[in-house]
């Protein structure tokens, strides 16, 4: 149960000053709080013995007021430092999670779904932060307060009465332990249900157009209803277990009150205890209720925090299996060489790349073609280092790629993926993202190269036009050209277009290809496509099938060989002629 506290020892050590201040002020607050019943007991004894005078009453009143104000002031101080610490922990853990997400490559995101990561980054971290805030408050304050009260009950009243009155608390501690185990198991199940619901909601939002097109709204509403009902039941089971802490505490405390009143009355009758001591003891016993209930809640908080810590640690402890890079830096890209490179995805049984041998000379254009599933995108993913290297050799210049720093090669690449990721910002911001501090002139130059100038003129606010979430307000072809402009503004050493011209017409495609060839003299360009017209001007074209290179050469050379490239080219030309 306390393992979550142990795992947070680094945080507590880092913020030891805040927690030391909290502990000292908490001790002071507790002492002033338990001093109040002692004063009341002495005042009642003075009344019973008819010794209460006006000056003595003023003294009692002054001490009572000072104790009350001091207790509240010190309580404010320790509460401030404790709950500020919880906010720091929450911020720090979320930053740590975000840093981890940004460093991870594709294999990591195949192990966790997006909604699950969101749940662990929000609700689970909030539960862990509760242990550093409310949990520490209860652990320090309730236990310390309870200790001080017990000492005052024994020292100022009677140790025998204290022992017999608190004897039922042993049973309560046992019941709390058993109940805590139940809470932890049920809470873990509820969190898993929350993660699953998050995943499905995100999928519905992303796929709402398809869902509507297939008139599946009612099906998803019913599925959502079933999931929320299931999550409600699991959360209710957690709440049912939590709800037992309070009545158990009250029953045991009531038993303690019965013992205290009965045995205490007997001691008063025998003259072993004064009336004032009996009243003070009952007040102390009443003050025990809050610490006992809080300790029950502490059990709950720690169990939930422990379950959440396991979920968060699982994410932070999961890597992407990528090889660590070297320390070499690179400012310009020489020839890219792959020799005998084979690779398969973690979930694949067969090779997805099979003994790839290719040299991409610096400043040349490589075209990659092949039917769907031939391995074109997998080849590009290896160039981008999105997955661990397979068997074989992969060099940039004279050095293996693993000799370079992790981001050294990526900083030299401009990449336009098949799925165009655009942000809920303006056209300008989306294009300038590729460089960061781009001027409007640089943005417009990239717009012209990507043949997006005419479309931009039709937009009501030009570069300031908001494109909506994921580019929802623009067409597929416009998304592709904004993505191309974003990659071009970086003026990268290597430009990779992964089927990035499929949504534009043939004339626009040719303009873009010609513009890229004109402005990228001396820089390497790699174009993967289904439309062979996009790679006609490439220095070398490779044809892929089942992860292998089956044909290679220039456009004219491949046409002369009458293979797959020749057949596919004729089909596409005939189709283009028919469309015209």
TrEMBL record:
Q: Which InterPro entries match?
A: AAA+_ATPase, ABC1_TM_dom, ABC1_TM_sf, ABC_transporter-like_ATP-bd, ABC_transporter-like_CS, P-loop_NTPase, Type_1_exporter
Any transmembrane segments, and where? 21-40, 60-83, 132-153, 159-177, 241-263, 283-302
Q: How does it sit in the membrane?
A: Multi-pass membrane protein
Q: Which UniProt keywords apply?
A: ATP-binding, Cell membrane, Membrane, Nucleotide-binding, Transmembrane, Transmembrane helix, Transport
Coiled coil feature spans: none
| Pfam families with a match to the protein in the record | ABC_membrane (PF00664), ABC_tran (PF00005)
Q: What GO molecular functions are on record for this protein?
A: ABC-type oligopeptide transporter activity; ATP binding; ATP hydrolysis activity
ABC transporter domain: residues covered: 336-571
What GO cellular component is one of the record's annotations?
Answer: plasma membrane
| Cellular compartment(s) | Cell membrane
Limits of the ABC transmembrane type-1 domain:
21-304
The record's annotation in Gene3D superfamilies points to:
ABC transporter type 1, transmembrane domain, P-loop containing nucleotide triphosphate hydrolases
Annotated CDD domains: ABC_6TM_TmrB_like (cd18541)
Q: What is this protein called?
A: ABC transporter ATP-binding protein
Task: Look up and give the organism this protein is from.
Answer: Jeotgalibaca ciconiae
């Amino acid at each position: 149960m306390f393992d979550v506290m142990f795992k947070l020892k680094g945080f507590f050590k880092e913020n030891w000053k805040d927690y030391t201040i909290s502990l000292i002020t908490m001790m002071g607050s507790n002492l002033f709080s338990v001093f109040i019943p002692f004063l009341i007991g002495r005042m009642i004894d003075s009344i019973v013995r008819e010794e209460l005078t006006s000056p003595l009453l003023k003294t009692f009143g002054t001490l009572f007021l000072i104790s009350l104000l001091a207790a509240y002031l010190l309580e404010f101080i320790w509460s401030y430092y404790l709950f500020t610490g919880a906010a720091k922990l929450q911020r720090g853990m979320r930053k740590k999670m975000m840093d981890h997400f940004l460093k991870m490559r594709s294999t990591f995101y195949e192990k966790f779904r997006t909604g699950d990561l969101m749940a662990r980054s929000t609700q689970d971290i909030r539960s862990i932060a509760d242990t550093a805030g409310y949990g520490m408050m209860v652990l320090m304050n309730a236990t310390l307060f309870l200790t001080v009260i017990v000492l005052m009950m024994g020292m100022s009243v009677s140790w025998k009465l204290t022992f017999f009155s608190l004897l039922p608390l042993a049973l309560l501690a046992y019941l709390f332990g058993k109940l805590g185990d139940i809470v932890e198991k049920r809470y873990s199940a509820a969190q898993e249900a929350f993660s699953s619901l998050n995943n499905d909601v995100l999928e519905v939002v992303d796929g709402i157009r398809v869902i509507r097109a297939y008139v599946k709204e009612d099906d998803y509403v019913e599925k959502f209803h079933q999931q929320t009902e299931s999550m409600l039941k699991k959360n209710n089971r957690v709440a049912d277990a939590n709800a037992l802490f309070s009545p158990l505490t009250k029953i045991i405390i009531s038993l303690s009150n019965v013992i205290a009143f009965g045995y205490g009355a007997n001691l008063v009758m025998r003259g072993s205890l004064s009336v004032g001591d009996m009243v003070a003891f009952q007040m102390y016993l009443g003050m025990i209720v809050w610490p006992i209930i809080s300790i029950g809640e502490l059990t709950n908080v720690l169990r939930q925090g422990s379950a959440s810590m396991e979920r968060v640690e699982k994410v932070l402890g999961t890597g992407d299996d990528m090889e660590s890079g070297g320390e070499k830096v690179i400012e310009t890209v020489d020839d890219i060489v792959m020799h005998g490179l084979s690779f398969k995805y973690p979930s694949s049984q067969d090779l997805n790349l099979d003994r790839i041998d290719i040299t991409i000379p610096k400043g040349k254009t490589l075209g990659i073609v092949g039917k769907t599933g031939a391995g074109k995108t997998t080849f590009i993913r290896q160039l981008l280092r999105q997955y661990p290297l397979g068997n074989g050799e992969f060099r940039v210049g004279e050095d293996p790629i693993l000799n370079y720093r992790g981001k050294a090669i990526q900083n030299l690449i401009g990449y336009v993926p098949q799925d165009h990721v655009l942000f809920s910002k303006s056209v300008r911001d989306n294009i300038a993202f590729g460089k960061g501090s781009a001027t409007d002139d640089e943005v417009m130059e990239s717009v012209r190269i990507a043949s997006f100038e005419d479309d931009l003129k039709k937009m009501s606010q030009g570069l300031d036009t908001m494109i909506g979430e994921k580019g929802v307000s623009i067409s597929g072809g416009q998304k592709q050209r904004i993505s191309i402009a974003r990659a071009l503004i970086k003026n990268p050493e290597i430009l990779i277009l992964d089927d990035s011209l499929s949504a534009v017409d043939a004339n626009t495609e040719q303009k873009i290809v010609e513009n890229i060839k004109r402005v990228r003299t001396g820089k390497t360009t790699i174009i993967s496509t289904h439309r062979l017209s996009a790679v006609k001007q490439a220095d070398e074209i490779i044809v892929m099938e089942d992860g292998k290179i089956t044909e290679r050469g220039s456009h004219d050379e491949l046409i002369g060989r009458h293979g797959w490239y020749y057949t596919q080219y004729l089909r596409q030309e005939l189709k283009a002629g028919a469309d015209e």
